[in-house]
């Protein structure tokens, strides 16, 4: 398949299912998940911080890390890639589905999920916390007024970051919606993900099995590149612009 064919497939598709990963937020200045360990945090592996075991052992340490990421995310702005996905959603309406593994909330801030289609956050959202006792979910206070851990506004219990950690199940409803959308997609777009974390990484395979065209946007080859019908080897904003026929 050539770029012109990929463009045509996307233009003509009634149902488009998109999976995004940390690469989509890289142009907003948020390091990708596997690059995020810098400075003080360089001695920790993501698995050592983003896991129920780590939180059980040292909740203050895990909260400190998430509070730092929350501050960074609040300062960041959605980029051109986020905006083009919102534009595609406007074009496809309820035929558009976006499943993100990102917990930074930037898709929502760019308008995704409110332009006629659907957005699901498969790994949660680090701008919110969830009560360990009663499951109540609440937005975190503004970073300047936030001292972790937050207390539940409903029952007073300790709250944890509202994200999916290694070894935890994904939210059932969100995952089921994503599986349905990818199974029914004409085109699956896989953008800025290394494709190493399942079940999200398996969504493209499901779309392909049902006859969809799968297009990857990523500057480098990934674990799941071999499955793709076509790949745009570029950053998310330029890769999407090329696919939507919007190069400068
Ligand atoms: P990774 O950090 O594993 O991968 C980021 C991908 O983005 C890589 O393939 C990069 O090549 C690509 N990339 C970098 N810059 C890009 C750009 N400007 N445009 C497009 N692509 C770019 O992040 P994820 O695949 O999202 O899970 O990681 C998946 C999950 O693993 C995360 O959600 C997290 C993590 O462990 C949990 O926390 C449960």
UniProtKB/TrEMBL annotation:
Residues 1-248 form the Deacetylase sirtuin-type domain. Transmembrane segments: none annotated. It catalyses: N(6)-succinyl-L-lysyl-[protein] + NAD(+) + H2O = 2''-O-succinyl-ADP-D-ribose + nicotinamide + L-lysyl-[protein]; N(6)-acetyl-L-lysyl-[protein] + NAD(+) + H2O = 2''-O-acetyl-ADP-D-ribose + nicotinamide + L-lysyl-[protein]. Its main location: cytoplasm. Keywords: Cytoplasm, Metal-binding, NAD, Transferase, Zinc. Zn(2+) binds at residues 131, 134, 152, 155. SUPFAM superfamilies: DHS-like NAD/FAD-binding domain. Substrate binds at residues 66, 69. Binds 1 zinc ion per subunit. Its EC number is 2.3.1.286. NAD(+) binds at residues 101-104, 192-194, 218-220, 236. It is found in: Cytoplasm. It holds the Pfam family SIR2. Gene3D superfamilies: SIR2/SIRT2 'Small Domain, TPP-binding domain. The active site is at residue 123. Signal peptide: none annotated. Its cofactor is Zn(2+). NAD-dependent lysine deacetylase and desuccinylase that specifically removes acetyl and succinyl groups on target proteins. Modulates the activities of several proteins which are inactive in their acylated form. NCBIfam families: PRK00481.1-3. Belongs to the sirtuin family. Class III subfamily. 2 residues (Tyr-66 and Arg-69) present in a large hydrophobic pocket are probably involved in substrate specificity. They are important for desuccinylation activity, but dispensable for deacetylation activity. This is NAD-dependent protein deacylase. It comes from Deinococcus aerophilus.
């Amino acid at each position: 398949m050539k770029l012109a064919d990929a463009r045509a497939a996307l233009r003509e598709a009634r149902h488009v299912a998109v999976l995004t990963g940390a690469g989509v937020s890289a142009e907003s200045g948020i390091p990708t998940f596997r690059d995020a360990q810098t400075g003080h945090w360089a001695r920790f592996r993501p698995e050592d911080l983003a896991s129920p075991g780590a939180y059980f052992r040292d909740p203050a340490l895990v909260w400190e890390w998430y509070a730092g990421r929350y501050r960074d995310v609040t300062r960041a702005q959605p980029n051109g890639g986020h905006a083009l996905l919102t534009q595609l959603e406007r074009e496809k309406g309820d035929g558009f589905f976006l499943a993100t593994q990102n917990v930074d909330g930037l898709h929502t801030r760019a308008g995704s999920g409110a332009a006629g289609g659907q957005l699901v956050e498969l790994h949660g959202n680090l701008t919110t916390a969830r009560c360990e006792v009663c499951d109540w979910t609440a937005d975190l206070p503004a970073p300047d007024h936030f001292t972790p851990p937050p207390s539940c506004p409903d029952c007073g219990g300790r709250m944890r970051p509202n994200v999916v950690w290694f070894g935890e199940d994904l939210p059932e409803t969100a995952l089921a919606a994503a599986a349905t959308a990818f199974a029914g997609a004409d085109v699956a777009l896989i953008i800025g993900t290394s494709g190493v974390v399942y079940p999200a990484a398996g969504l493209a395979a499901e779309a392909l099995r049902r006859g969809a065209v799968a297009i990857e946007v990523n500057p480098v080859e990934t674990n799941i590149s071999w499955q793709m019908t076509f790949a745009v080897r570029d950053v998310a904003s330029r890769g999407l612009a090329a696919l939507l026929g919007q190069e400068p």
